[in-house]
Design brief:
The protein is α/β, with parallel strands linked by helices and 336 residues long. The chain has one domain: Glycoside hydrolase, family 3, N-terminal domain (TIM Barrel, Alpha-Beta Barrel), CATH 3.20.20. Helix content is 39%, strand content 12%. The strands form 2 sheets. Strands 6-3-2-1-10-9-8-7 form an 8-stranded parallel beta sheet. A two-stranded antiparallel sheet has the order 4-5.
Length: 336
């Protein structure tokens, strides 16, 4: 059985009977972990194994970017915000290149050791302090520097065996509004975006395994929110930028997505625009509504999704005494 087009979340530290029933639904294709699902290394590894035992093809994901967006903490390396790594790279390009690569490798190896397939990373938004929800999650407010830093971080992820997801296409750094709370409207023309926000996505299109569009409307480009727009996802991302990987919707429970309507309508629009998988988080009734809608469709699951599975296996006994990991942790402590 292939992974279905819905990624949902879990309510606690272990699988409830309802969780197990939902994971068996053929339209479910993945699970995303949040901080509430994590207690310890052993617990999260056991939870991942329980999910895989039900359906091994299910994707297991987490947001483990570093900085303030890091769901697994106790026993995992506390990664700095990507802006701190980007600034170090700008000040010391040679040392910064190695550290970015090593941090990508370290984050990925630790997440893979938890039985998780991938982290939704890296952030490719071009920003420093223009958008509060992005800010120091971005490598740089310079598109060339952000691209170079992300390229090294992705190389480390790939070395560890993890697929990389660039977000939030075409860039959240130009709007102050938080798409978790409202729909941001960015009035800039495509030409301006092409010279700034789109640069990392264009330059890394052949390197990224997946892309996540933002819940943003660019009225000068298209009337629809990016994640629901065929123009953005097909004409620009796939055709103009040449991206051939997986497209994940951002969480459809975010208020920024409500511009399109209810859950069924949002799912319909996202899939029609070209998303391979939609996310519905922190709203179990919403996820069930989406499953009911998907069950009525004659939908062939995307074969692209299988490319997001872990490519290497790591175990904590192997990592705990790994000289490279210990060296990188020491570097990060000195940098902090």
């Amino acid at each position: 059985m292939k992974a279905g087009p819905l990624m949902l979340d879990l309510e606690g530290l272990s699988l409830s009977d309802e969780d197990k029933d939902l994971l068996r639904h053929p339209m479910v294709g993945g699970v995303i972990f949040f901080a509430r699902n994590f207690h310890s290394r052993q617990q999260i590894e056991s939870l991942s194994a329980d999910i895989a035992a039900i359906r091994p093809e299910l994707l297991i994901a987490v947001d483990q970017e570093g900085g303030r967006v890091q769901r697994f903490r106790e026993g995992f390396t506390r990664l700095p915000p990507m802006q701190a790594l980007g600034d170090y790279f700008a000040a010391s390009p040679e040392d910064g290149t190695r550290l970015l690569h090593d941090c990508g490798w370290l984050m990925a190896a630790e997440v893979l050791a938890a039985g998780v397939d991938f982290s939704f990373a890296p952030v490719l938004d071009v920003d420093r302090d223009g958008c509060a929800v992005i800010a120091n999650r971005s490598f740089s407010d310079d598109p060339v520097a952000a691209t170079a830093a992300a390229r090294h971080f992705i190389a480390g992820m790939h070395e560890a065996g993890m697929a990389a997801t660039g977000k939030h296409f075409p860039g959240h750094g130009g709007v102050a509004a938080d798409s978790h709370l409202e729909t941001p409207f960015d009035k800039r023309a495509l030409e301006e975006l092409t010279g700034r926000d789109l640069v990392p996505f264009r330059e890394l299109a052949a390197t990224l395994d997946a892309v996540m569009p933002g819940h943003i409307v660019f009225p000068a480009v298209d009337e629809h929110c990016v994640g629901f727009s065929r123009h953005w996802l097909q004409d620009i991302l796939r055709t103009q930028l040449g991206f051939n990987g997986v497209i994940f919707s951002d969480d459809l429970s975010m208020k920024g997505a409500d511009h399109a309507g209810g859950y069924a309508r949002k799912t319909e629009l996202a899939l029609a625009a070209g998303c391979d998988m939609v996310l519905v988080c922190n709203d179990r009734p919403g996820a069930i509504e989406v499953l009911d809608f998907l069950s009525r469709l004659k939908l062939e699951p995307s074969a692209r999704l299988a490319t997001m599975k872990a490519r290497k296996g790591w175990r904590w006994p192997q990592l705990d005494n790994d000289e490279r990991r210990l060296r990188v942790i020491g570097q990060l402590e000195a940098l902090a």
